[in-house]
Structure formats: C-alpha cells, structure tokens
Design brief:
Length: 223
C-alpha cells in the first residue's frame, strides 16, 4: 500500500509542484492529471490503486480552488479514464491465479485532453456510468462488483508466479503504449467525441431549433 501511494499519489503531487514552479511565474499553462473511473468508484482487488486515485482527485480539487483564489490563469484538468490497453497488465505484481486484464470494455490509449482544458473530462460511457452509478446506487454496485469484479479482471490464461514486476523498480526496455489486448480494444469513443465537441453540438442544436421555430411561426402566420 505504501509503495502504491508513493508512486500513484505522491508522484502526482511532486510532478504537479514541479510544473507549478514554472507555470505560476508565467501565469499560464494547463496541468493534465491522469485520473480514472476508479477515482469515483472503487473495485475489488485494487484497493491501494483506487485509494491513490481518490487521493489524486482530492488533491486536484483543492489545488484548483487555490489557483482560483490566487486569480491564476494556470488551469488544472483531470481526465477520468476507462479501462485502457496499456502494458501495465504485463508487469504488475499480481497474486491472482490467472492473467490480469482491464475490466472490459477496453479502450486504446489515445487523444490529447490538453486541447480541451475543462475542469474534468470523462472518457467513455463506462466511466460516465461508474461516476453516475456511485452517486445513485452505491450499495447496489458494492454487491454487483463483489459478485463479478474478480472474474472481470482476469483472463482465462494462467500467469507465471515468478514473472518480473515493476512494483519496486522499473523494468528494462521500451514497452510502448499498447498492451496485449489490441484485438479487443476499441479505437474510438462516441462519448469522448461528443464531450470534446460540445460547442459545435450546441451550435448545431441552436441552429436546428431556430429553423424549427421559424418554420412554426411561418406556418402559424399562414393560417
């Protein structure tokens, strides 16, 4: 637990403070925190990781308020991610009997949320459902995840108990950005496209509404 918190939580804290030392004097910049649906809804077998992501969420909210208080133009956005096909499942330390996997549906790591520096960006419908579900039916989710959460995080393949892991030190070599689930991972998310194109969607909706109102008035005046 201590090691996971040091890396996954305090790593964010120290990285953010290092960025602020450069951004605050210039009074501009965007800090992008890589969050997770698990920052809102914890799941079994990942208590340390979920706790760290909850801590990052709290740290980010506090920092954001402090920046507003100081009237700083530095912005902080947190991207809440779904299950991603990253190499971490090839090297994480695991005590499960079968090979670990992200909870399906799995998405490919892609996109740049820094171009959409809103307060928070939720990626994928699974993330949105987790965030809403935790607010509406948290008790039901406790029972549901207790029933399906273990199997959902394991493949049918066995895992070697002595395989190397990166809990205490990084592994040599370039592991890239994608994991071993390319054949199952989704390349795109309609939800992400909609949430990152809100101005265009609102403009289109306003134009359609204007046309409908104009047509309705024309029809009414012709009677």
């Amino acid at each position: 637990f201590k090691r996971v918190m040091e890396v996954t939580y305090l790593g964010y804290v120290h990285g953010t403070l290092a960025a602020l030392r450069r951004m605050l004097p210039r009074n501009r910049g965007v800090i992008v925190q890589v969050g997770s649906a698990l920052a809102y809804r914890a799941i079994p077998l990942q208590s340390a990781y979920c706790a760290a992501k909850h801590a990052v969420e709290g740290f980010t909210e506090s920092l954001r308020s402090e920046l507003f208080h100081d009237r700083s133009r530095v912005r902080v956005t947190m991207v809440q991610l779904p299950a991603l096909n990253t190499p971490q499942f090839q090297w994480i330390k695991s005590r499960m009997p079968r090979h670990p996997q992200p909870v399906p549906p799995i998405f490919q790591p892609t996109g740049s949320p820094a171009r959409h520096p809103r307060r928070e960006v939720a990626v994928g419908w699974p993330t949105v459902k987790a965030m809403i579900g935790e607010k509406v039916i948290p008790g039901l989710l406790d029972r549901y995840l207790g029933r399906v959460g273990y199997a959902a995080q394991q493949t049918d393949g066995a895992v070697q108990p002595d395989r190397p892991n990166n809990l205490w030190t990084s592994l040599p070599g370039d592991w890239g950005a994608h994991g071993v689930f390319d054949d199952r991972a989704r390349e795109r998310s309609l939800q992400l496209w909609l949430t990152t194109h809100r101005p265009w969607i609102w403009a289109l909706a306003a134009a359609v509404l204007s046309v409908l109102l104009s047509a309705s008035r024309t029809q009414a005046s012709g009677r």
